[in-house]
Each structure stands twice: as C-alpha cells, then as structure tokens.
Design brief:
The complex is a heterodimer of chains A (about 400) and B (about 290). Chain A is of the alpha/beta class. Chain A contains 13 helices and 14 strands. In chain A, strands 2-1-3-4-5 form a five-stranded parallel sheet, with helices on both faces. In chain A, strands 7-6-8-9 form a four-stranded parallel sheet, with helices on both faces. In chain A, strand 3, helix 4 and strand 4 form a beta-alpha-beta unit. Chain B is an all-alpha fold. Chain B has eleven helices and two strands, in the order ααααββααααααα. Chain B has a two-stranded antiparallel ribbon with strand order 1-2. The chains are: A alpha/beta (about 400), B mainly alpha (about 290). The interface between A and B is large, with 46 and 44 residues.
C-alpha cells in the first residue's frame, strides 16, 4: 500500500484552493449542450451588497427556467463572478467569452465596469445585457450595437424624482446644494441634475465631489450647514448613500434632502428613522401588481427576505434573454440583436410592459418616485419606503422621461 | 466668516481623529510589541460592529458598546495563542500573509453568517441631533464618542505607564532579550496586548456602526487609514499615534474645505510628506529590533 504523504496532500489542496480562488475555468463540466451565460457583478467594494442581491435574483431565474425545461431544450448555466473593478471586469469578460464558452454576457452595476465590458462585447461581437449600470453616457456617447441597457438611465432617475420635487415646490427659486460621487456614474448624475435644476428655476449654490471610498461625511455636512440651502441634493452611489443619510440624521440638519439614486438595499441599511426625502427607484417589492407579488413571495420563501431592485432586474433580464432565445430559436448574436431591435414587448412585473428602443438599446419602462413612511407606519424592517405613482403616467408614452434621439449622442 | 468655517472644520477634524485613533492604537501596540503588522485588524473592527448589533438587539445600545469589545477581545486571545504567536520571530512577510489571509477569511465568514447585504443600525434617540457651541455645530453622538475615546486613551496610558504590567510591556518593546534575561516570559503580556488592541478596534466598530454602513467589507475599508495613522505617528509611540490620528482628521477636514475631491487623498499625501521629512514617523522611537 502506498502511503500518501500528508504534506503532499496539503500542498495539492492548497494549489487547488489557490486555483479556484484565482478563478481557473471549471474543468469537467463540459456539457456540450448547455447554454452558458457569463455574469459579472460587483460582490466587493461599495456596490458589493447590491451585487449580492443581483446574484440571488439571477439564480432564481436560472432555476425557474431550467425547471421548466431550459431554453430550446437546453439547460442554462450561469457563471457568476465578482467583477471587482473596471479592469478586472474587462479581463474576466474576455475570458468568459474566449475560454469558458459564454454565449452572452450580462450583469454589472458599476457604470465604469459596464463600460469596459461593453468594449469587450463589441470587440468580440457578442451580446452584453448591461443590467444595473445607469450612466447616461453608456447608452449615449459610448453606446454600441452589442449592448442592451436594462436599468433606467440617470436622466430618467432625475426626472422621476424631479417631478415629485417640483410638486413639493422644492426647486423653483430655491437654493440647492449638491453632493456628488466622484466617478463616472456620479458625474453623469450630477450633469443630469444640473440640467434639471437649471430648466426648472433652481440655483445650485454648491456641488461637492466625494471620493467613492469616503465613509465619513462630517466635513461635507458642515459645508452644507454653512451654505444654508433650501434643498440638499445627492448624486451618490452604493454605500455612500447609506453613510450619507445616516450621518445627515446624526447631525440633525434641518434642510430637506433629495437624491437621484438610492437602491432599496442602501435604504434598508440606513436604519429606522435615518432616511428622509424624495428619491427615485426602478422597482420596489410592495408594488401592487399580481406578477410582482408572486415573484416577491417566491423570492422571500427561497431566501428569507424580500428582493431588492437589483434582484428583480436580474431576474427579469434572464427571463427576457430566455424568451428572446426561445422565440428566435437561436443563440446567435446578430439574430438576437435583430429580434430586440424589432421592439417586442416584455413583461417586467409592472403595470406596463417594456421594450428596448431600437436606436439606443435602452429598455423603456416605468419608474417611481418614493418618500419615506412616517415613523411607526412600517410593518417590518423592509417596509419603510412609500412608493409614489408610476411615471410616466399611464396615458403618456414610456419615452417621455428618457433622453430623446436629438438629445442623445448615441450613434451605432 | 471664512475663517470661522475653516476653524469649524479643524474642530470637527479633532473629533474625527478619535475615530482613527481607536483603530490605529491597537494596530500600533501589536506592531510595537510583537513586530507584526496585523492586517486582520480591520476584521476585528468589523466583528465589533456586527457583534454589537447582535448584542444591541437583545440588551440595548450601552451593553452592546460595552460587551462587544470584550467578546472580540476574547477572540483576540485565541488569535494570538493559535496564530499570531508563531510569527513574532519569523520573516515579517509571513505574518503579513497570514493576517491578510485571515482578514479575507473573516470577511467571508461575516458574509456567510450575516449576509452580504448591509445591516441597519441607528443612534439611540437620546444621542441624535446636534449641539451648537458658540458658532460650531457638533453631533451629539460624536461628542459622546470623543468622551469615550478620551477615557479609553487615559486608561491605556495609565496601564502602560503606571502599572508593572506596562513596565514589562514597554521594556519588551525596547529590549525583549533583556526582559527574557530577567526571567520574565513576554508571552502572556503579548496575549493581553493583542486582546486589548483588537478590543479597542471592536469598540470602534461598535461605536461607528450607527453612523456608517455596516457591511462585510467595512474592515478592509478602515485598515488602510489606520495603517497610515500608525506610519505617520511613528512606531512604538503612544502619543505619536494620538497626534497622527488628530492630524489626519484635521488635514482631511481642511482639505475638504478647500478642495473636496482631494479629501480622501489628503492623508496619503500627509504620509508621504512625513516619511520624506521624518522616515521614523512624527514621534517614532528608535527600536533596536526593527533597525
């Protein structure tokens, strides 16, 4: 009998552990028949919490689709990885297409990372569903034929919350202090916000940039107090929003706040009594639509908590992709692009169906402003947002809040 | 008026210094005594925050802040006994790798136990809001925090300078061989120092949970800043770390006053300047074993 050297076992084990940590392609799962989907989303860093929800939603859609017999009789296999940062996202995207046999790419929340994956998709002539990135430039100046955009762009977010701000009389003739996240998405959001305030008679008395790794906002809060604005307007992303609203509540500043970006997970993380103001969202789990309610119930049963908007959007995106492959009976990139460009309608678990605009590949869908429920009205820790009516209103076309073809710099 | 605004930022920076101090002090102590850069220090800060939320749910905020550092301090004892101890005399690169690895493991453990989504936490109602002293605005909570930091600081200083325990520790920093020659085993002292160090980091986590986001990567976010403070302050110097923490807080505030986008970069620029002018750090002492 050969004796196995304990050290050798340890070494081999360590090599394996190291290999899997570095993301070596999985060996031994080469089932020719599966449709492989490459998924990238930030699991660490200031967007990591959102990425975790994104994975849950996507996984649930994958399981449902495979349970119902897969797509074209073939099972779906989602490879999901942490996109880490724009450079890593691009490397991983390339590897997923080249070595791991991904048919399509999808995912992302970070606009800067989405931008690099879009370039990989264009270079390889493969489809990329950019799910959670919201920068205008991605579907504007940087748009390409191979990328479709699912989440609402920042202009829509600004308009959605902006309509509510106008109704509250917080813009016209008011002094507005902005705080902006210092990266692609924040700058984009700040630009859209600035245009909105200028068009509606508001004056910006300050616009300060904050690094994405800042956790303490006290010096900024002092500057807000010194400026004595009528409205504090935030263009922040991910964790920053939570840190900001927690510290805003801590200092107890009297000025009303609003923001053009807040994901539900960041709102939940703020803690009771800390959040206030008017914000936009793309979907919320208490939406009163039967299909949405079923999704929420199934998700809660599976994971023990309600889905966040990133879980919802990944879920519907994979369903859309499966539907597109089933209806075209194809996984071919050009066939799929041609299909989406015909602007078919997709069920988004909302009152109205949505479609991808053919000329900028942006999904047209309803958005919602929300405020915060008064103290004591929340049923549980997930229930403190008060969703406003969907925008655009039912009698308006879905495109009214989005940039028009004339405003957009997208040329494919 | 401009001057008042600037002064307000300076005062706020002093308060913020207390935050950096809680994390950096333990890091500095462990480094000074054991010669180990504990890259897992941030993980104990994060654990402090998570454990305080668990305790807070059951026993309230005060118990949470008091007990969480004790629980994490006990984890620190295990950490020192079973892991750190093996690396005091080893090549520093090994202890860096081990503690870096441990930080990643701890972050994943937090993700598995508490989930990747951030947890909500709030300041107790009595401590919310601001106090205006003169023309300056202070957060009531941060002033409370500052008071706690001062008490902790005083206690640690007294422990190190007025007790026989402290004499041995200080002697151990400078001349471990001499301490050994006198027949004193440094190991139990080291265990205590590590427990104390990670305990103060946990206190920082517990105190900051209500005002910053509580998520698995919070430890990784703080470790760099803490390390910068230690480097600026200088090795082995208690007051160096205190001075550096305050300086980092003030410089950051003043930078944000004049040039907001550079706010987070300011501490690194400060570190480079200090290293250029005084490579040993502001109040760093000459320590034989590190020369």
């Amino acid at each position: 009998m050969t004796r196995i050297d304990r050290r050798q076992v340890l070494k081999t084990g360590a090599a394996f552990a190291g290999g899997s940590a570095l993301g070596f392609p999985a060996i031994g799962r080469a089932q020719a028949n599966v449709i492989k989907i490459g998924h990238l989303t930030p699991l660490t860093g200031f967007l990591g919490a959102l990425g975790a929800y994104a994975q849950l939603g996507l996984k649930m859609a994958e399981e449902e689709i495979n349970k119902a017999g897969g797509v074209l009789g073939r099972p779906l296999e989602v490879m999901s990885e942490d996109s880490v940062n724009p450079a890593t996202a691009s490397t991983k995207a390339q590897r997923m297409l080249e070595q791991n046999g991904a048919t399509v790419l999808l995912g992302e929340i970070n606009s800067a990372s989405a931008k690099t994956i879009m370039q990989v998709a264009a270079r390889n002539k493969r489809l990329f569903m950019s799910i959670g990135a919201r920068s205008d430039v991605l579907r504007g100046k940087d748009c390409n034929r191979y990328t479709f955009h699912v989440d609402i762009p920042v202009t829509v977010m600004v308009n959605a919350a902006g309509q509510a701000l106008l109704r509250e009389g917080l813009v016209k003739g008011k002094r507005i202090f902005s705080i902006t996240s210092d990266y692609l998405f924040g700058h984009d959001l700040a630009k859209a916000a600035k245009n909105f305030y200028a068009a509606n008679g508001g004056t910006q008395v300050g616009d300060e940039l904050v690094a994405t790794d800042a956790t303490d906002f006290s010096p900024y809060l002092l500057k807000v107090r010194q400026a004595k604005p009528d409205l504090v307007s935030t263009n922040l992303g991910g964790n920053q929003v939570t840190n900001f609203v927690k510290q805003y509540a801590e200092f107890g500043l009297p000025f009303p706040i609003a923001g053009f970006n807040l994901n539900t997970a960041d709102a939940w993380a703020a803690g009771e009594g800390n959040l206030s103001g008017i914000w936009p969202t793309v979907w919320h789990h208490d939406l009163d639509i039967p299909a949405s309610k079923t999704f929420v119930a199934d998700f809660a049963k599976k994971y023990g908590k309600p889905p966040e908007n990133h879980a919802w959007i990944e879920y519907v995106t994979l369903k859309i992709m499966a539907q597109a492959m089933a209806e075209t009976k194809s996984t071919d990139t050009d066939t799929l692009i041609a299909y989406f460009e015909k602007e078919p309608q997709f069920d988004l678990l909302k009152a109205r169906k949505g479609y991808f605009r053919s000329w900028d590949h942006q999904l047209m869908q309803e958005a919602y402003p929300f405020t915060v429920k008064p103290k004591g009205q929340a049923k549980d820790q997930w229930d403190f947002l008060k969703l406003g009516a969907a925008v655009p209103a039912a009698d308006q076309p879905l495109e009214v809040l989005a940039p028009t073809k004339e405003q957009s710099e997208c040329k494919m | 008026m401009q001057l008042m605004f600037l002064l307000e930022q300076v005062v706020n920076g002093l308060v913020l210094g207390g935050y950096y101090l809680l994390i950096a002090l333990g890091l500095s102590l462990i480094f000074s005594v054991g010669g180990v850069v504990n890259l897992a220090h941030g993980a104990f800060y994060a654990l402090g925050a998570y454990i305080s939320l668990e305790i807070g749910k059951r026993l309230g905020f005060v118990s949470a802040v008091a007990l969480s550092p004790v629980v994490v301090g006990m984890l620190g004892v295990l950490f020192e006994r079973f892991l750190l101890r093996r690396f005091y005399t080893a090549d520093p690169i090994l202890s860096l790798l081990v503690t870096f690895g441990l930080a990643m493991v701890a972050e994943q453990v937090i993700r598995i136990v508490w989930g990747a989504a951030p947890l909500p936490a709030s300041i107790p109602q009595e401590l919310k809001g601001a106090i205006i002293i003169g023309d300056f605005l202070f957060s009531r909570y941060r002033l409370t925090l500052l008071a706690i930091v001062i008490v902790v600081l005083a206690a640690i200083w007294l422990l190190l300078h007025k007790t026989s325990f402290g004499s041995v520790v200080r002697a151990g920093i400078q001349r471990p061989d001499m301490v050994a020659a006198l027949g004193i085993r440094l190991q139990p002292y080291m265990t205590t120092i590590v427990a104390l160090g990670v305990g103060t980091a946990a206190l920082g986590g517990a105190l900051f949970a209500p005002i910053t986001i509580v998520h698995p990567a919070m430890g990784a976010e703080i470790i760099t800043a803490a390390f910068v403070v230690v480097v600026i302050g200088g090795l082995g110097s208690f007051w160096g770390v205190v001075l550096a923490a305050i300086l980092v807080g003030v410089v950051r505030g003043v930078t944000i006053h004049f040039l907001p986008p550079a706010g987070e970069a300011s501490m690194y620029v400060l570190m480079i300047l200090v290293l250029l002018l005084r490579p040993r750090g502001l109040l760093g002492e000459r320590i034989e074993k590190f020369e």
